[in-house]
Amino acid sequence: MELKAFQVENFRSIDQSEWINIDDVTALIGTNESGKTNLLCALWKLNPVSDDGKINLLSDAPRKLYSQLRASDKSTIFIRCKFELNENEAQHISKLRKTPSEGLKFTTVCRKYNGGYTVDFPYEQASNLSSSIFQNLITSKIKIISKLQLLKSENEEKRDKYLTTFEAIDSEFQSPIVDKARLEKCISLLEDLFDEKAPKTSELTKVYNDTYEFISSHLSNVEKPTSEELQKSRDYIIEQLPNFVYYSNYGNLDSEIYLPHVIENLERTDLGAKESAKVKTLKVLFDYVKLEPKDILDLGRTDSEADIDLSSDEIELKAAEKKERSVLLQSASTELTSKFRDWWKQGEYRFRFEADGNHFRIWVSDDKRPEDIELEGRSTGLQWFLSFYLTFLVESKDAHKNSILLLDEPGLSLHPLAQKDLSLFFGNLSKTNQILYTTHSPFLVDSNHLNQVKAVYIQDDGTTNISSNLRANEGNPSQTKSIYPVHAALGLSVSEMLFNNCNPVLVEGPSDQIYLSAIKTLLISFGELTPKKDIIFIPSGGTRGVKPIVSLLTGKNDELPTVLLDGDTQGSKMAEALRKDLYQDTPNSILIVSEIIGMDQAEIEDLIPPSIMKKLSRYQLRSNDPDSDFEDYYAKDLPILKQLEEFAVTNEIMLEKGWKVEFAKLVKNHLLKISRDKISEDTINIWKTLFSKLN
């Protein structure tokens, strides 16, 4: 199961949040006290991996609802989550619920304050059959009965009996929907006709057998599940829920670890939060070393008087055990040094573990400071990252595998460049674990994937809200402050391009950035694009924002950035103005989508295969009219975005502010999951042509 979206309500500072779509990595940004932690905690308590995530009405319920909830049965829901099932899970649920698996790919799971769950399948298709297939069959059989040649042993009375029965069956199928009760009645009518002595060569017998077999074969398709089977389907979903792991304190490792205390604390259950976090990190460390603290304690102690009475064989055995433990420490030191370099880019660090009496020490050296220094003598950032790294490297292979990781303010003590390394660490970790984290730092906001960023802000009534639309509620000062890290991240991205040899491409809006980033990723994965410089797409906020940002993006050598514009009226006018003014010496740096595709008025959306856009439009544009489908409305060789908007107006579908960005995210997620053979060579050639001009 994969988490796709969540909504929090009636939890701490949150009345009711928006539904928030989730990516492999999702960042929640916002000011202090905006409610970021509350959102993570509500999600954590859907299915916490540890007991400290239990629901606590006193701390979790909003103050204004506490007395009401305390006196009730506590059946109020506080978290709703949408999950996508894999094929095996959907098939299993399909067998239990006796409905097609196509409608069971998504499930909504909610949790109540009393600990109970609700499970729903919002797209489940009722197992009803259209009556038309039965009407066509019965009509044809009535015609056959009327004209067939009777055997000598049969008479017209028998024919009339068949006609009367089949006409009665035909009347049952006049209703547009066929259910189990209707089919069972038809089978009962047929069984009244059954004659054991009827000749097998009879045409009437053949009509009877064909009809009986056809109706019986469809009976299983409308069979209703029992209440026990429905409950089993809900129980199965709860069993398959991913665990949610919440971290707000990673328990930084000390350089000198007093082993007797560690051994004692590992057995205790009454430790405070800070000590528990530290013990947890130590346990991970010893798991990594593959030795128990008692073994390390024994390794570090010198020979005692008790060893005097040992035989030579016992002394030799004890020495061999110590040597093996020493080798394990050396091996763990070497392995940590090697693997740590793949993640931490702020220096070439070497680690050495040492057992010394009652103490276990971690020594660190690097090329600039080759002498061993205790871990505590190095930076707080290095201590934090090592503790964080060990926790996730070791635990993600065990208890955290396939879990969803909720990280509260990770990397606060890290240098900005180290925070960028942490962002890379998240990207790799997300291959096995979805990650949601809160942050204030622009260095932990990926400006290339702003669709992964959600803004948390305080509303006018003092409650918390969250939005995928970073420009939502712009009139609210707290919202403006919340998205400051995004503005800063975009500024940093610009600086990186200027100083790190990147290739900036200015586009009109964030949806354009999302589509083009997806195409770039696909071309690179297909081996069709190997850019010498990374191509980064910068949204300008519309054609009006192009000129101001062009000046910001102009490099130290006064080289103007490439601009890619839609082929609509506004885009074409802006392209003409830029070519006459700023770009009069480099007009080829202004690109228009319609010129690339060869379609008048074409926009960025027209770079995407229409089949994909049409398919996904069903999720974005849901009409109240079941007979109205955008696929029937779509006209080839015309810009698809305008057609989508016209279809919405015609069918009275409300398009919310920012819908284009949300739709772009949906398309991008779909594109990145499909193989090359699902995309035509003509489309790939258009993409290659575009990126050859951008590169």
Automatic annotation (TrEMBL):
GO terms for molecular function: endonuclease activity. Keywords: Endonuclease, Hydrolase, Nuclease. The keyword Signal does not apply. Residues 1-445 form the Endonuclease GajA/Old nuclease/RecF-like AAA domain. InterPro entries: AAA_GajA/Old/RecF-like (IPR041685), Bact_Antivir_Def_Nuclease (IPR051396), P-loop_NTPase (IPR027417). It holds the Pfam family AAA_15. The keyword Repressor does not apply. This is OLD family endonuclease. It comes from Acinetobacter guerrae.
